[in-house]
Amino acid sequence: MSSVVVKPLIKGAVMPDAIVTERLTKYYGNRRAVNCLSLRVPAGTVYGLLGRNGAGKTTAIKMLLGLVQPDFGRAELLGEDITALGGTTRRRIAYLAEGHPLYPWMTVGEIGRFTRAFYPSWNQPLLEQILDHFELPAKAKLRRLSNGQRAQVALALAVASDPALLILDDPTLGLDTVVRRDFLESMIQLIQRTGRTILFSSHILGDVERVADRIGIIDDGVLRVDCPAAHFKQSVRKIVARFAGRLPAVPACDGLLSVRHDGAELELVVVGFSARHTTLVESLSPLSYEVVELNLEDAFIAYTRRERRPLPVFGGEPDHVESDRTQRTS
Amino acid sequence: MWKAIALKELRELGGIAAVALLLGLVLSVTKIATHVSYLPQFDSWVGRSAELPFLSVEFTMFYGCLVILLAIALGLRQTLGEELRGTYPFLLHLPMPRGGAICAKLLAGVAVYSVCSGVPILVYGAWAATPGTHASPFFWSMTELTVLVYVAMLLVYLGAFLSGLRPARWLGSRFLPLAGSGGLVVVFLFVALASSLLGVVVLVAATGLLVASICHVARSRDF
User: Fold this and answer.
1) Does residue A65 share a domain with residue A207?
2) What is the average per-residue pLDDT within B120-124?
3) Cα separation of A33 and A155, whole Å?
4) Could you tell me which chain B residue has the CA closest to the CA of A69?
5) Which residues of B82-111 are buried (b: 16+ CB within 10 A; e: fewer)?
6) Contact call for A102 and B92, based on CB within 8 A
């Protein structure tokens, strides 16, 4: 699989890196959960780490926070090695764990008081303002709150510590569409007004598209993509070619991600789309062909999807296959 | 920071502590009642005891059962509780050394264990030491066996804590440290009954071993 790597946008501009990882690797048994992750997130960036379930996003984030020990490699947060993070640096890092785990027996006020004890620069008025904005009463028990409300409490706690670096692990996981949108809008407001660095993982592409300046795609533990979201979208294209008779075999080509046979059509997904790809298609002598732009979600799916055997229920039923294709390309 | 974690632990252990205190009080009051001669209505219920305070096997046995259950419940509640709720990442990302957070939990657990297990001994002992309450001699040294059980079960608490903290794939390996601490308790009791000094040495060594294991697991495991 090819990878897209984009260097800093402004040549010569030197920004301190909030996150640096070098060949960070983690094994679970024989399985490599994260494989040589090398990443730089400049200060002030909102970085979306994308990947399918089990791709290694959470493990990578937990390694950054010292919750999981890397087997190999090193990482720095805010210029300090993660194995020797001092209290002062740790107080500048906030983390929202996947699923927003909080103590269910505590009230909203109690979890605020509990967390405040760890941060000398705790911004209590800001916490109260955010809780008020979300209409979360201080006396409400966390166990009685919905997933969305718990996420809001967790976000409020993270922001109230006034962090320079905020790490969010799938913050919208388990939230319905409306709550997710509200949560993201609040997050954008709270985050962007101070220009802090954010690293957040997600597998919901719409969320990432709305918030992130830059994206990384992690697949099977390997960071395949590290570039601005727009650049990634532009890099991945689908070429649909129609043929009169038997579909020709497609020769290997640099950047070719997948080939899909669909009746009389060939669908090629390519990364780093260029003239050589159109030349390749033209060399197959199709009746016609078109180059389709993909949105971030389709580009992500095309980029990370593996070849699978067809589902038996659809086998030999062109209508179903056709509707499947239409749905994917629309 | 320490205070916040300790208070959180005390709140979480409150339920177990309340039940243990109640059962401990019931045990000591029931035992006291067996000695009381001026409450004849108790005779048919618990039977009149002619035994010396703290020297009945029955009391030590019931007391031992109570504190072993308390020790296991506390240790597992503090560690497996966090694991099952998924709150370790929230707790351990807070800007406090991981070892410090685990130590604060341990200290809170030891405090709860000490109070809840100590109360039945103190109540029964205070009654026995009060002149005129029973027709038998009493010396605090008569509490030796009960106190040994009280101290020994601290090892069980540490073993249960380690069992809950340590990652494990199945119940057998999960409870290995707890079983190991049971072995240490047996060794300690045998040695301590033979020689107090050696007993102290074994106790300190066993406690050190378990605490060191807890610190090692806390530092090295993935959360």
Assistant:
1) yes
2) 91
3) 27
4) B222
5) beeeebbbbbbbbbbbbeebbbbbbebbee
6) no
CB contact under 8 A, B90 and A90: no
Nearest to B86 among A69, A93, A99 (CB): A99
pLDDT of B35 higher than 80: no
User: Which among B94, B96, B98, B219 is the top mutation candidate for probing chain A, defined by the most A β-carbons within 10 Å of its own β-carbon?
Assistant: B94
| Residues 6 or more apart in contact with residue B40 via CB below 8 angstroms | none
Q: Are residues A226 and A240 in the same domain?
A: no
Mutate which of B93, B102, B221 to disrupt the A interface (most A C-beta within 10 Å)?
A: B93
pLDDT tens by residue, A297-318: 777 877 777 655 444 443 333 3
Q: Which residue of A has its CA nearest to B6?
A: A114
User: Which A residues in the span 109-128 are in contact with B, Cβ-Cβ below 8 Å?
Assistant: 113-115, 117-119
At residue B39, the pLDDT reads 53
pTM: 0.81
In a domain, A2, yes or no: no
Chain B, nearest residue to A114 by Cα: B4
Q: Residue B144 is encoded by which pair of tokens?
A: 């030796």
Q: What is the DSSP letter of A306?
A: P
CA A88 to chain centre: 28
Residue A193 shares a structural domain with residue A242: no
- What pLDDT sits at residue A93? 92
Same domain assignment for residues A223 and A93:
yes
Instruction: Give the residue from A179, A209, A230 where a domain finishes.
Output: A230
Q: Supply the angle between the helices B196-220 and B176-194 in degrees, to the nearest 10.
A: 160
- Domain range for A125: 19-230
CA dist., res. A23 & res. A174, Å (int): 31
**A200 and A258 assigned to the same domain:** no
pLDDT of residue A278: 85
User: B 86-115 residues with CB below 8 A of A?
Assistant: 86-90, 92-98
Instruction: Answer for the pair B161, B214: CB distance below 8 angstroms, yes or no.
Output: yes
A69 in reach of chain B (CB within 8 A): yes
Count how many domains chain A has.
2
Question: Which residues of chain A make contact with B88, given a CB cutoff of 8 A?
Answer: 67
pLDDT above 80 (res A175): no
Quick check: A329 pLDDT over 80? no
Quick one: what percent of chain A has pLDDT higher than 90? 25
ipTM of this complex: 0.82
